[in-house]
Amino acid sequence: MRVVATAGQPQAAPLDAFELHEREMPTPGEGDLLVRIDAVSVNPVDTKIRQGAFLPSDQHNVLGWDAAGRVESVGANVEHFAPGDRVYYAGEVERPGCNAEYQLVDARLAAKAPSQLSAEEAAAMPLTALTAWEALFDKLRLSQGDATHRDQTLLIINGAGGVGSIAIQLARQLTGIKVIATASRDTSAEWCRRLGAHEVVDHHDLVANMQQAGHEQVDYIFNCHDIGDHWNNMVTLIRPLGHIVAIAETQKPVDLNALQGKAVTFSWEFMFARPLHGADIAHQGQILATLAAHFDAGRLRSTLSDIVGPLTPANLGEAHRRLETGHTTGKLVLGAMPAS
Amino acid sequence: MRVVATAGQPQAAPLDAFELHEREMPTPGEGDLLVRIDAVSVNPVDTKIRQGAFLPSDQHNVLGWDAAGRVESVGANVEHFAPGDRVYYAGEVERPGCNAEYQLVDARLAAKAPSQLSAEEAAAMPLTALTAWEALFDKLRLSQGDATHRDQTLLIINGAGGVGSIAIQLARQLTGIKVIATASRDTSAEWCRRLGAHEVVDHHDLVANMQQAGHEQVDYIFNCHDIGDHWNNMVTLIRPLGHIVAIAETQKPVDLNALQGKAVTFSWEFMFARPLHGADIAHQGQILATLAAHFDAGRLRSTLSDIVGPLTPANLGEAHRRLETGHTTGKLVLGAMPAS
């Protein structure tokens, strides 16, 4: 089978380092699915690993952990999937990625893809939707339903990014909370409103903008941006006994003591923590199945913003380049590899 | 009425700065109790404020936020208390403390004292028990009952201190979790065991000691010590998706990023956050009422370790001195002021 890989170790590989390689077709382990890839999406984890973060190893020059495809074959112990099933999943960052014709994935991490979504629309969702779901419902423990959060407010920092775009929808569609998203450009602000944000504020001078909008404090903050950039803003804006969840580490010093006087809780969300540590990983397949039902019922929609093209070295480099600008809205997707 | 106060502003007042002063008898506001103080206890918040922390003001030279006493009179809107009731409470750090003959307290922050405890035994408990309760049940969200935490482990760092001593009991008596407490001296280790700790480990070289005891990781950590001293230990010992709660800020730098890979949650517990910010403060009176029932049923016992003497300037200075050594087990208490 063919893969799109960086040459050798991925440390600090440039954008044009992607090449076509031939690999042996992998054989599913007893709990695995072998999936023929129909579409993939790119995420910051890809560009970070391409630049040498996390787990550099020979295997990791096949990046990509967000896919939709069709089951080609299943391992001996797999019960709920059969060849031909359309599936979607993020997978696990310790195994080779989905920038390939075929990929293995632990069946517990996958779910049947939403039937109303194209492969490209489905491939846009798993990593960010799992992240947003775990952040909102496992970490912040928001209740689904209208009643509990009627008088509460959630601030989503970087609302137009991949995670923010599905977080806005999940919070708006599944809870009764007021959703405030940050965005600074007209197009990204409009994107957030269309996804369901009740209000959009500019993240430049965030505290002043929040106060001007009548929000001295919020009950919850979901920070989808470098936590160092907004640490002091979060300290000011979070209410006493409030809860912050974040996904992006920082190189800037942050003063954890500053949250003490308000007795605040700070949670890290990291989607790959479950598969990396083998912690109840079936939870992620279950979340994806629940999300698929919401997509098919029209309660959620794909955050796909652009299909860069089929999965080729040049298109993958272009998707990485655009992601690294930090100005993409929603998700960038690539289709299946062209026939050889 | 007489009070034991530091002369003037409390900034950096030495241990011998306490003096007897005469103050006007205060008049209860509509939601207040006027309480005749029978016993008080000392906590790190007292020594910190004496040294100039938090909220220096003229009022704050009467320290002490842990008391048992009898209701002398009640405000117009107080419903559930009557003169003569024995009460106990921590109160709120923005109002004058309990190192006095009489004190005002918001009735919502108080409860009837456990009937089976002496005034000294009761005065030892409110601040630390509220802290431990909120940390275990509101922050870590431990379930009461035997089933949920049967296979889980809670590490309590500084188990023999004031908060640790009641946290051990609450976790052991009200949940089915395995409780590991840290202590380094024979007397404090024995104290932790008597309070119900399943195991005690030395906090010097904590990770190695935990591994030797067969605990590579724990589900929950309640850190009752400077978080900087044990930050790296906590990063190593907390399980993926685990939860840490802490009460003591640090002057040392801590690397919040280090908890990201395990997707850990970190909560600050600060008992005075509710009264300071007016956040559902009746919660604290309710907790104290629940605790009183547990004390009276014999499920919990007072962590009083020594009665320093009656409330005099010299005895209060001595209590502060002993607390500042960092080697007290349980709680130090002072009795009522001697008759003038």
UniProtKB/TrEMBL annotation, chains A, B:
The keyword Plastid does not apply. PROSITE patterns: QOR_ZETA_CRYSTAL. Keywords: Metal-binding, Oxidoreductase, Zinc. GO terms for molecular function: oxidoreductase activity; zinc ion binding. It comes from the Bacteria. It comes from Chromohalobacter marismortui. Belongs to the zinc-containing alcohol dehydrogenase family. Quinone oxidoreductase subfamily. SMART domains: PKS_ER. Transmembrane segments: none annotated. This is Zinc-type alcohol dehydrogenase-like protein. Residues 13-334 form the Enoyl reductase (ER) domain. PANTHER family: PROTEIN AST1-RELATED.
